[in-house]
Amino acid sequence: MEPYRIKVVEPIASTTREQRREALVRVHYNLFGLRADEVTIDLLTDSGTGALSAAQLAACVSGDESYAGSRSFLRFHRAVEALTGYPHILPVHQGRAAERVLFSTLLKPGHITLSNTHFDTTRANVELNGCTALDLPCAEALDLDSDEPFKGNIDVARLEKALGGPEAGRIALVIMTLTNNGGGGQPVSMDNLSRAADLCRSAGVPIVLDAARFAENAWLVTRHEPAYRGHSPRQVAEEAFALADGCLMSAKKDGITHIGGFLGLRDAELARRCEQLLVATEGFPTYGGLAGRDLDMIAQGLAEVTEPEYLQSRADASHHLARLTRAAGISLVEPPGLHALYLNAGRLLPHIPPHQYPGHALACRLYLEGGIRSVELGSLYLGKEDAQGRPITTAPYELLRLALPRRTYTRDHLDHVGEVLARTAESADRIPGYRITEQPPALRHFRVKLAPLPLPPTQSPLRTGVPRPAAARRPAVEETTTASAPPDPGDDGR
Ligand SMILES: *Cc1c(COP(=O)(O)O)cnc(C)c1O
Hints:
Strand content: 5-15%
Distance between the termini: 43 Å
CATH topology of the largest domain: Aspartate Aminotransferase, domain 2
Bound molecules: pyridoxal-5'-phosphate
Largest sheet: 7 strands, mixed
Oligomer: single chain
Shape: globular
Number of strands: 16
Strand order of the largest sheet: 2-8-7-6-5-3-4
CATH architecture of the largest domain: 3-Layer(aba) Sandwich
Number of domains: 2
Number of helices: 16
C-alpha cells in the first residue's frame, strides 16, 4: 500500500465521450493542446507533477526570501552536498538551465559529448553550442522484450574505443543519464558507471551524471545488482555521485518539487566560470532563479525520495500498471521502469505504418476512451517526412509513454487506466492512423496539427495483432461518464 495518506485533495475532471471527441477536434488531435480540466488521468509526464509532503509544505513556509545568503540556500546547500559530496552547488530554475550553464562554459564548437543516451534537452543544449552529442547505449537496450535489468548502461567497449580513437581530442564530456530516460527509463548498474568513470579518468575526460532520477536508479540497483543487495538506496546514490565529477539535476523529478534544479561540481575553477554565467542568466548564486521556498522544498524532497518505503510503493505502482497492460494484450518495454511505462504501439497497431504514427493514434484513443493523457515516443517525435508526407527517417520503435507522477494517483486511478487499456485493445483494429496537417520547423510534437485517416474498408473486424490471454477478454466496462456512448466507427473522427 502507499506509505502515506491524503490530506489535501484536488478534483479530477469528469468529461463525456462527446466532450472529449470535440476537444480532440479543437486541439487538432494534439494532446499538448488540451486544458488540464479536460483530462481525467494525466500521464503526460512525471516532471513537476508530483504531490508535496506535509514536511515540504512546512519547509515552504519557512523559506527565507533574502536576495543573498538566504537560510534556505544554506539548508539546500547542506542537503545537496551531503547527498552528492560536491562542494560547489549552483541552483537553477530547472534541469535544462544546468545543462546550458555547464555546456556553454565547458564546450567549444566542434566538441563531442558521449552518453548512454542524451535526454532531448541535453542533446539540444550540446548542439546549441555547436557540438555533437553521440549516444552509446548498450546492445541489450535494443531488445525491448528482454528482461535484462540494466538496459540503461553505456556500451563500455564503444566508450573505450571512442576515448582512444582518432576523435578522442574532441571528446569534452561524458554524460551518464540515471535512469536512462531516452532509453525507456532503464537503469544503469554501479558496475557500468564505475567502469565508465575509470575510462574517463584514464582519458582525462570529465564525467557528469544527468541525475534527474538518481533515487529510482539507486532503488533498481539495490534490487538487481547482487553486490548492492542490502545497501540502502541512499548509500547507492551517494556512491554513484562519488564516482563522477559533477551532476546536472532536474529537481522536478527525484527532487519531488514543481520547479528547480542544480549543477553540482567538484572543480572550483569550472564552478567559478559557471557561476559567472549563472549570475548573468539565472540569478545570484544563492537562489539561481528559484524562490527561497523552492530551495527548502528541494532539500526536503531529496531526503524523502530515497526512503525505501516510498521507492517500493513507486515500483509497486509501475508493476501493477504493467500487469494490467500485459493482461490487456499490449506489450511494453521490459522490464518496466519506475517513472513510466513505454507501450509498444507499433506491435499493437500493425495496420498503422510508422509515418501514420501508431503511438500517437493510441494516445488519441486512450484520451477518447478514458480521458487519459499520454505522449507518443515514436516517429511523430523522432521521424521526418518529405513535402509529400513520404517518410525520410522513422523512429526505431513506435512507443507510447505513460508517465507516473510521484505520489499523485492511487491504485484505483491505475485500475481505471487498465480498464481503458483493455477496452482500447479490444478494438485496436478500429484505431485509425494520422496525417500531419501543419507542423512547426523544430520540436514539432508540441505544436503539430494532425487529422485521422480513414480506415481501409476491407479491415477485418478481428484484430490480427498480439493474441491476448483469454482471461483478459472481458466485456467493455462502462464508466459513468461514457455510459451512453456505444463504441462506434465515428470514434475514428471520420
Ligand atoms: C527532465 C530531464 C531533463 C531536463 O530537466 P527540466 O527540469 O525539464 O529542464 C534533463 N535530463 C533528464 C534525464 C530529464 O529527465
